Amino acid sequence: MQLLFLDESGTSPSPESVSKNPDKNPYFVLGGLIIPEMEWKSLQYTLNSLKDEYGVVGEIKWRYFFPHPSSGKKTPLSHLTLEQINELRLRLFQIVACRPALCVVAAVVDTKRYYETHPGNDAEDMYHDAFGEVCSRFQYYLQDMSRQHDGRPFYGMVVIDERNHQQNRQLENFHYDLLTSSSPTATKFNNLVEGLFIAASHHSVGVQFADLVAGAVYRKVSKNDSSFYDIIERNVRCGQHGVNGFGIISLPKGSVKF
What is the pLDDT confidence band of residue 10, given thresholds at 50, 70 and 90? Predict the structure, then answer.
């Protein structure tokens, strides 16, 4: 069994907010980390050991590594020095990088161009479209694994960070429709098991790492800073001509190049 853990960087913005201030949320990223079931326990142990070493109680989130002292808000990393925070972040990304069996996938949405292309859509449509594209890459990944192992089937499950109740229910329905679609042009999700697993990020090791993946991809496209993405670049699903359309899918198609 292969487990795809998903989390987003920021929130998918409404068409009104993008129209009024396109520079505020230029991109939306849904990042994913595929973890083989045999790797999960080791990953959990390594993360917990690292948190114990740094005295971190609570979950790891990308935004905690960019503290804003003026806000006065405490995070699980507030007791660390800036040097310790940077060191911890580097070691977390190295945990992924040193495990070639882990695979990174992500959807990157150019929010302005998305709403120009889909003028009738809203923030949830954007989220669902990104989710569908990442799930498609997961299905193709499972098919690749099967071909590499003499046709032995590989199956997978999607685990995603919880949002509010209504959004969770809508996503569950959207996921069900993906898996059961009879459209001749739709991806056939024959390798995904039934149902979507929604988990609280503070209870999920995989979701916490997916959050870091999403943050690294977002920083590369929004800040032109690839320092974190570069560490895990070899983990990104890659085709003959690179990661575009394979590990990284952009919406609208081709709007972002890696």
Answer: confident
Fold of 2-251: Nucleotidyltransferase; domain 5 (3.30.420)
* Alpha-carbon torsion (224, 228, 234, 239), positive or negative: negative
Sign of CA dihedral 161, 146, 139, 157: negative
- pLDDT (tens digit per residue) in 27-84: 999 999 999 999 999 999 999 999 999 999 999 999 999 876 656 688 999 999 999 9
CA distances from 252 to 103, 133, 256 (A): 23, 11, 8
d(CA 141, CA 34): 9
- Nearest Cα to Cα of residue 144 among 232, 34, 244: 34
Tokens 């310790």 found at:
84
Look up tokens 């161009």; give the residue. 113
Count of CB atoms situated within 10 Å of the CB of 35? 26
Q: In the numeric block, which tokens belong to residue 206?
A: 């995989």
Q: Where are the domains of the chain?
A: 2-251
- In tens, the pLDDT along 199-225 reads 989 889 999 999 999 999 999 999 999
